[in-house]
């Protein structure tokens, strides 16, 4: 195992509180002459991704953040050192003489080799360091124990503006914003820095003037994902990110969690055998096989890193047995259990057929992968495929300046017919957009991502308009704050799941929920287990946040809650909301059952009288 793989595995599998980052740094410093042009971007990309995650995680302690800051600073100094610069300049000359491109898979061109690639790495590390420093300041706004980090900066309460989605007339909208800004300037002349609300308004006005429709903020979308490039106050969006992150932690069912933990502990060859035997033996035989399996304990990431640094092989012992979960309680006919085995078998089959190495179209991916992935979602939502026109997007476009009659088309649409009476597809609750197979097609990937986020925003707006006014019901007001709509984006064999939530009446927040890479080799089949976990989290989020049950939708609301809402809530013109229809269904069901009960009593009484007379 090379040093870059060992460090990557160590950072990924070891809790951040136990990171021995100084050991990793010393190994890089000592062996920098042995770093090849392939190792360097791998290490840099891994450190940048881990540091970016570290900077946005709201529960990381002060010690962990300081470790990350120190590591980032040391690595940046190392790559800026004279020795490293001389080494990579030599690599630059060597590569140009050989006329090869070792950076092609990381999208480096011929002008970005050697020293130029080092400069890009240095800039990226400095950005990560800046992000980490900002996280130190931002956490001080919400954590009293870390107030010393903020260097005397006081947190100010942030209030979101309640503006319309888009002004019907550009000039009127701009004049209104300018008038509001003049009033705010008169009231706050003594303040040196504007409030976050003013910065948000200024940012939106600037984007509106430039017509930057490819920027999420133009659509009033607070993109809080790892790919975001926000030019809006950090403390403002950090509070929103903490709020959204606290909503996105679903818990899987016990059967699915038990099986996934077992599959994660299996060695590679055993997992391949399980996937290959599914179509032949079935789920019942596989569960019996896994329950009797004895697996040798794997070496931890820290042990693998030490063995790589010392240059020795790992000592494996067959006496150390991995403790597997008890599979006797699992049922072989459980839909989630069968689906997990089916995903493993399908991914292995596609790899063995060489599909991942062929030139595949977007529809090939939809048929060979997405159709299998979304089978588990059919229990909770209706799934439509094939450039479906979003009705929520079409309704929004009909009220805009250009008044386009057609809405945005998406590859996969998740909806629920029972909650959208009168609509063709029902109420829309999520989507999947297939961007591109090619990793270098960044333009299409960015465009489809923006289109998907805007569609999620339109769905949330349509759902918001179907609710009664705030204050009518405390239950509804609390449920409104917990709504998360998932959006799935595919690009270059990687699926990224984001969730969108309403922040107020005008802004929508988008945050990462999970991601996984489709395995392209048999050795990477463990990635399929990660795939199953992420998609099951999407299903759980649907089930718990909305109470979706296709087969038991009449039991979504308890009778006591229906009775209270029927007596106290006056929907008026908003009678199309789902509670009114559910109340009617429950009332009609109660009438039918009452009539059946009375009829049953009557005939029983009649039979008794006839028997007595005879």
TrEMBL record:
Species classification: Eukaryota, Fungi, Fungi incertae sedis, Mucoromycota, Mucoromycotina
Highest taxon of the lineage: Eukaryota
Biased composition (Acidic residues): 178-193
Region (Disordered): 158-201
Biased composition (Basic and acidic residues): 162-177
Protein's UniProt name: Uncharacterized protein
């Amino acid at each position: 195992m090379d040093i870059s793989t060992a460090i990557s595995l160590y950072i990924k599998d070891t809790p951040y509180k136990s990171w021995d980052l100084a050991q990793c740094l010393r190994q890089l410093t000592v062996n920098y002459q042995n770093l090849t042009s392939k190792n360097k971007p791998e290490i840099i990309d891994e450190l940048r991704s881990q540091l970016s995650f570290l900077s946005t995680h709201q529960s990381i302690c002060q010690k962990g953040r300081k470790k990350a800051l120190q590591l980032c600073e040391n690595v940046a100094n190392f790559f800026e050192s004279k020795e490293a610069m001389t080494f990579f300049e030599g690599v630059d000359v060597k590569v140009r003489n050989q006329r090869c491109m070792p950076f092609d898979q990381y999208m480096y061109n011929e002008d970005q080799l050697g020293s130029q690639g080092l400069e890009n790495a240095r800039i990226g590390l400095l950005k990560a360091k800046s992000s980490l420093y900002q996280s130190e300041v931002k956490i001080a706004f919400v954590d009293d124990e870390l107030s010393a980090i903020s260097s005397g900066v006081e947190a100010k309460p942030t209030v979101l503006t309640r503006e319309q989605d888009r002004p019907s007339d550009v000039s009127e909208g701009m004049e209104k914003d300018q008038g509001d800004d003049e009033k705010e300037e008169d009231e706050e002349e003594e303040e040196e820095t504007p409030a976050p609300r003013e910065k948000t308004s200024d940012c939106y006005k600037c984007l509106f003037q430039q017509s930057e429709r490819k920027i999420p903020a133009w659509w009033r979308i607070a993109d809080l994902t790892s790919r975001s490039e926000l030019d809006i106050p950090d403390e403002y969006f950090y509070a929103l990110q903490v709020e959204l992150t606290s909503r996105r932690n679903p818990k899987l069912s016990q059967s699915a969690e038990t099986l996934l933990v077992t599959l994660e502990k299996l060695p590679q060859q055993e997992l391949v055998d399980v996937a290959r035997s599914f179509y032949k033996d079935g789920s019942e035989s596989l569960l019996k096989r896994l329950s009797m399996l004895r697996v040798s304990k794997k070496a931890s990431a820290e042990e693998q890193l030490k063995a790589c640094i010392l240059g020795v092989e790992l000592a494996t012992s067959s006496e150390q047995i991995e403790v597997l979960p008890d599979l006797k309680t699992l049922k072989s006919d459980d839909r989630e259990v069968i689906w997990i085995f089916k995903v493993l078998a399908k991914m292995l089959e596609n790899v063995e057929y060489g599909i991942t190495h062929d030139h595949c179209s977007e529809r090939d991916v939809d048929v060979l992968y997405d159709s299998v992935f979304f089978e588990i979602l059919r229990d909770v939502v209706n799934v439509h495929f094939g450039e479906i026109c979003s009705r929520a997007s079409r309704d929004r476009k009909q009220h805009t300046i250009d008044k386009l009659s057609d809405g945005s088309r998406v590859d996969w649409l998740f909806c629920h017919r029972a909650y959208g009476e009168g609509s063709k597809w029902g109420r829309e609750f999520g989507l999947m957009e297939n961007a591109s197979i090619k990793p270098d097609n960044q333009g299409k990937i960015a465009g489809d991502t923006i289109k998907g986020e805007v569609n999620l925003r339109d769905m949330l707006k349509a759902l918001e308009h179907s609710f009664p006014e705030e204050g009518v019901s405390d239950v509804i007001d609390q449920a409104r704050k917990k709504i998360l709509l998932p959006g799935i984006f595919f690009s270059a064999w990687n699926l990224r799941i984001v969730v969108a939530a309403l922040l107020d009446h005008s802004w929508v927040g988008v945050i990462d929920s999970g991601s996984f890479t489709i395995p392209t080799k048999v050795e990477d089949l463990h990635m399929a287990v990660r795939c199953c976990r992420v998609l099951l989290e999407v299903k759980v989020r649907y089930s718990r946040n909305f109470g979706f049950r296709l087969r038991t939708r009449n039991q979504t609301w308890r009778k006591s809650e229906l009775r209270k809402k029927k007596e106290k809530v006056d929907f008026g013109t908003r009678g199309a909301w789902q509670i009114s229809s559910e109340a009617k269904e429950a009332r009609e069901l109660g009438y039918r059952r009452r009539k059946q009960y009375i009829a049953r009593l009557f005939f029983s009484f009649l039979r008794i009288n006839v028997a007595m007379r005879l």
